[in-house]
Amino acid sequence: MDIKLIRLQTHGDERGSLVALEQENNIPFEIKRVYYMFKTKEGVRRGFHAHHSLKQVAIAVRGSCRFVLDNGSERIELLLDNPAQGLLIDTFIWREMYEFSDDCVLMVLADQNYDETDYVRNYSEFLELTSKEEMYATL
Length: 139
Ligand code: T46
Known about the structure:
The chain is mainly beta. The protein has one domain (about 5-139): Jelly Rolls (Sandwich). It is about 10% helix and about 45% strand. The longest helix has 16 residues, at about 125-139. The relative contact order is 0.26. It binds dTDP-4-keto-6-deoxyglucose. DTDP-4-keto-6-deoxyglucose (T46) binds near residues 46 and 108. DTDP-4-keto-6-deoxyglucose binds near residues 46, 47, 56 and 114.
């Protein structure tokens, strides 16, 4: 599975660091929504879903957390711990987030407004949908 980690240019000087996020530039889509999670309790795992059409970029702007990304045939785990790094999460990728540090602020940029009907929250259904996608791709 191709994991796209976007290196976000950091403008640093004696005052500290600054990262700018621009749609269609370092963020590869129009930004329709931004949300962030923080104060995540110890031992909590979040996510457990995929999206039909939503694309997102996740950035640990503070602290760290781990991600599982699963495309139905491969499962990859990675640590997000760098505010100058964005993780692109494409459509039809099952995601789980866990091991949030106490101070973690995980910010997510999304290309669509919130829409519960875009979620696939059942893993068996996700596997079925991804195998159909693969079948259509090979036809
Ligand atoms: C994703 C991962 C990385 C809203 O009302 N608006 C929003 O924009 C969002 C994202 C959530 N909500 C409500 C819906 C739920 O009642 O906030 C509550 C928690 O959302 P959820 O359980 O979906 O959170 P996570 O952490 O499991 O998943 C979120 C995103 O929903 C999802 O798209 O990719 O973060």
